Recover the amino acids of this structure.
């Protein structure tokens, strides 16, 4: 099993942050790249998968998994069979030492919003047996303003919703509707107003996990990898001591810390995309079959109801 | 008449009325979901004006080329996607004057522009992709 640690890790002082209210989420595993991440006091630190496995096995409470960008229906280079790699990702989850309480899918379930693509994804996820919370990607709402997606996968008519698990407040946001020419991901006033109301009911010590498809920070504006009204959403999250933002869309792991907020983008299970600005366009990276699975993955986050810090681990399908 | 036929007839009538209300712009290819390949141009409703000429916009490398195209009124403009990722062609106007179905690789979509004016559009999957059709009086 490959266990290389490949990321630059911000080495900010975590002691000033990490304690009770921030230090509750323990571990995460991405089955995609062989990268392990531990969130300590809101600061991600790399960690060997051996240690992570131990931490997961010791975890007392719950874990959850993030899967993203399955793009069922895609059939070109570098991956003519995203169904197979999606299944492989779910197999990785099945083999985790601590089984997740649920999964979140951060969008682009399908490639072209076709009913048979949704059918396939739903069937595969159903077979896994994991309860799954979804947000759409822009590839899921190509038909009828996303109605087929929302009817099948969303827990509310609007597509945005929140729920609680073991004291953690999870918020699902939709930022792939209402795109403007030349623009970015977009939340919209109605959803922002809902978010503000939803957060007002939470105490500042409640750990918050926000998940939405397009990154809530400007990863790369030339490729539209950002959300135009994310600053408004982040202003509502400012009072909270622990905020974790999980995104998809860019098919690679990029992380950043801003105050009490940590942002993480996720691997795809279908195909990798280039790092910002390293290619003429953000289309699929044409990597060979041998390398492909080192660039795909899933993420597992373990949450402990203790004073332990949040930890996120990214692991490749090839691991 | 079976219900589905009646429904279709009514829908067709509504579509025809809408097209009459917007005579400056008509679909040469109806964006009819997945049933009809976007590149098929038959079955054009009889009341849709016939194009007097045609021109092309190529979609590749996540951009429209040419980015600005000038045509005479009555021209049928066809977009063809050469990328390995789907794109769309959607007018900036609200409501949209034209909106293609998702165009997968090699799919095409056409619009006949009857009325002079400047028509800005973008890809609703990748909104950084923008283009303009400038329609001149013939």
């Amino acid at each position: 099993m490959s266990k290389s640690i490949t990321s630059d890790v911000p080495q900010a002082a975590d002691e000033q942050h990490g304690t009770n209210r921030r230090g509750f989420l323990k571990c995460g595993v991405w089955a995609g790249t062989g990268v392990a991440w531990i969130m300590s006091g809101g600061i991600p630190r790399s960690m060997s998968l051996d240690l992570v496995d131990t931490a997961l096995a010791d975890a007392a409470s719950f874990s959850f998994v993030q899967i993203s960008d399955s793009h069922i229906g895609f059939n070109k280079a570098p991956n003519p069979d995203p169904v197979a790699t999606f299944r492989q990702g779910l197999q990785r989850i099945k083999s985790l030492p601590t089984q997740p309480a649920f999964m979140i899918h951060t969008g682009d379930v399908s490639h072209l919003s076709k009913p048979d693509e949704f059918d396939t994804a739903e069937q595969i996820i159903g077979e896994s047996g994991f309860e799954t919370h979804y947000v759409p990607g822009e590839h899921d709402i190509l038909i009828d303003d996303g109605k087929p997606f929302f009817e099948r996968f969303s827990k509310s008519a609007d597509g945005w919703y929140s729920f609680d698990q073991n004291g953690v407040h999870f918020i699902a946001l939709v930022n792939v509707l209402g795109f403007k020419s030349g623009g970015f991901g977009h939340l919209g006033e109605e959803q922002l107003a809902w978010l503000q109301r939803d957060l007002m009911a939470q105490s500042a010590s409640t750990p918050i996990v926000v998940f939405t498809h397009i990154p809530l920070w400007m990863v790369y504006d030339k490729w539209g990898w950002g959300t135009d009204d994310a600053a408004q959403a982040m202003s509502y999250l400012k009072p909270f001591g622990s905020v974790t933002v999980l995104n998809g869309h860019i098919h690679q792991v990029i992380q950043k810390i801003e105050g009490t907020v940590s942002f993480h983008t996720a691997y795809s299970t279908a195909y990798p995309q280039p790092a910002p600005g390293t290619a003429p366009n953000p289309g699929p990276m044409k990597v060979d079959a041998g390398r492909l699975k080192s660039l795909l993955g899933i993420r597992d986050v373990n949450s402990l109801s203790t004073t332990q810090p949040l930890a996120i681990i990214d692991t490749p399908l090839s691991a | 008449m079976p219900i589905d036929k009646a429904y279709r007839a009514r829908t067709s009538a509504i579509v025809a009325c809408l097209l009459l209300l917007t005579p400056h712009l008509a679909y040469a290819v109806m964006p009819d979901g997945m049933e009809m390949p976007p590149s098929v141009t038959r079955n054009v409703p009889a009341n849709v004006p016939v194009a007097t000429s045609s021109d092309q916009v190529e979609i590749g490398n996540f951009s429209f080329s040419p980015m600005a195209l000038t045509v005479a009124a009555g021209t049928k403009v066809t977009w063809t996607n050469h990328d390995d990722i789907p794109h769309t062609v959607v007018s900036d106007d609200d409501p949209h004057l034209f909106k293609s179905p998702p165009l997968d690789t090699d799919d095409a979509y056409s619009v006949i522009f009857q009325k002079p004016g400047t028509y800005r559009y973008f890809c609703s999957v990748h909104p950084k992709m923008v283009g303009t059709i400038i329609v001149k009086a013939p």
